[in-house]
Amino acid sequence: MTDAATTDRWIRWLNTMQLVLAGVLIMAPTVWMVLSSFKPSFEVTAYPPTLIFTPTLDNYVELTKTTPFLSYALNSIIVTVGSTALGLLFGIPAAFAVSWTRISWPAILTLAARMAPGTLFLLPWYVMFRQVGMIGSYTALILSHAVITLPIVIWVLMPSFDGIPRSVFEAAQVDGCSVTRILWRIALPLVASGVAVSAILAFVFSWNYFLFALVLSNGDTKTLIAAAFNFIGEGSTQWGALMAAATLIALPPLVLAALVQRWLVSGLTLGAVKG
Amino acid sequence: MSNTAATLTQDRQRLEMAALSAPAVIFTVAMIAFPVVYTIWLGFQTFSSTGKQSFAGLANYSKLISDYEFWHGLWITIALFVLSLALQLVFGVWLALVLFHAKRLPGIVRSLFISPFMMPPVVAGMMWLVILDPSLGAANYILQSFGLPPSDWLASPSWVIPTVALIDSWQWTPYVALIVLGGLQSLPPSVYEAAQIDGASPFKTFQRITLPLLLPTIVTAAILRSVDLLRFFDIIYITTQGGPGNASNTLNIYGFRVGFEFFNIGYASALMLTLTAIVFGAVLAFNRLRGAVAW
């Protein structure tokens, strides 16, 4: 009896230790990035590295002074919000129709973008957008990023629509409601939380996306992610400013993800796993 | 009479449903299907240095077969894929088991565990670039304080691929863990109880019962990761751009550089179509595997 209790306590202790170890391995690099961003410039590159220092905002001030960080940030917001809105606009009705009719090929079609390498689309886009003089335009960036957001919206929302009892719709149909009306007036309010999760996930993945803006943006429309090279160039001597940039770029997706962490896994696996 | 009315309503409904899917379908055809067809056509073209374009038949594909960089890129892609996937599956299953036995996970802990893969890969690259700096980085300081030799990490041609695999595994192991955790939580508790009554050791229970039951979930995680790993781009492009030399020149990086640094759009198209075929082939193979381990 006491033996079993002791073994039990040992197992629990061992598990807690492993949990702490995993937590440290996962968190340490991010903590180091944030700490470095608050270090005085002479201390960022100190060797051996220091843990105790007087925190300063110098790196953040430096960053906004030496790079157009704020206008990059504005570009990121325009492209991300635009592509998320477009993804919702096209994705909500499509998810509803697929869920209702069980005809799933439109949803599977949008998944192609999740499987093929982005360069496959970027090559023809580049040729096409160049012909119509749209390289560097917000429109080209928003359209390309909507390729990321659309499948997220559709695949996160389909299970939500599936969860509404069909009798609800059938009753509305008997009352003479059109399908479109049923979607906007009855179904959409019932899946409001699903819409919020899909919008946040779409925002995060559009914000994080690197490849398209690398080619389709220009100096005026460059997003924060595509401008990362500028910060690294800047940071070859200025690690503090580089880490300040990295911290600020990572902040929006991390805060948003924390808000919806409970629903994240089922959303991220695009329906492959029920989380 | 009422039958015709019913058919009419049904037709109307079908039309309305088609109208609801139409924007998404038209957008996808315009942004993906048509461009892919265009890429196939581009794959048969050559572009001269002045940007003049001419039909080249299968020249790009025969070039690909004799192109050392293509085979090197394929090898790098596969090496990075196998190494990263192995790391992420092994540590992902371990982490899932640890999280599973912790039972109640406060939301804040879950948020911390998802933070690596919600962060932009580009930021992960910037962050690790500083940590892994050969002369001033924290990683080498930690190694040396344990009496271990320092490494050149991303700056070393022989270490760059394992290093990139480590960075990607730091980012995505928690993701694999959360998927596997979902699988663990959906297993019927009765199987464990039966094993416990039979006096099976925890290790035996895991090996003989938990692992086989988890295999479909693990294969699902493997599919989702494979798709990303085979078209690996962000972390490499931000840290090494395929270097040092060509040591981390994966197919996706190589294709991107051929297209947008050397502006050989035709050859880049042939490269990317080949990579796409590889990704789809891998997904199909894994899907068959999932069918084989399903229960």
Task: Report on the architecture of this protein.
The complex is a heterodimer of chains A (275) and B (295). Chain A contains 14 helices and no strands. With 275 residues, chain A is mainly alpha-helical. In chain A, helix 10 packs antiparallel against helix 13. The longest helix of chain A is centred in the first third of the chain and has 36 residues. A two-stranded antiparallel sheet of chain B has the order 1-2. In chain B, helix 3 packs across helix 11 and helix 4 runs antiparallel to helix 7. The model of chain B has no long low-confidence stretch (mean pLDDT 88). The chains are: A mainly alpha (275), B mainly alpha (295). At the A-B interface, helix 1, helix 4, helix 5, helix 6 and helix 7 of A face helix 1, helix 3, helix 4, helix 5 and helix 7 of B.
Compact description:
By secondary structure, chain A is mainly α. Chain A contains 14 helices and no strands.
Draw up the topology in text.
The complex is a heterodimer of chains A (275) and B (295).
Chain A: H1 2-37, H2 41-44, H3 58-66, H4 69-101, H5 105-115, H6 118-131, H7 138-162, H8 166-174, H9 179-190, H10 192-208, H11 211-216, H12 228-235, H13 239-259, H14 264-268
Chain B: H1 2-42, E1 45-47, E2 53-55, H2 59-66, H3 68-101, H4 107-118, H5 121-131, H6 138-145, H7 160-185, H8 189-197, H9 202-230, H10 234-239, H11 251-260, H12 265-293
Antiparallel strand pairs in B: 1-2
Helix pairs in contact in B: 2-12, 3-7, 3-9, 3-11, 4-7, 7-9, 8-9, 9-12, 11-12
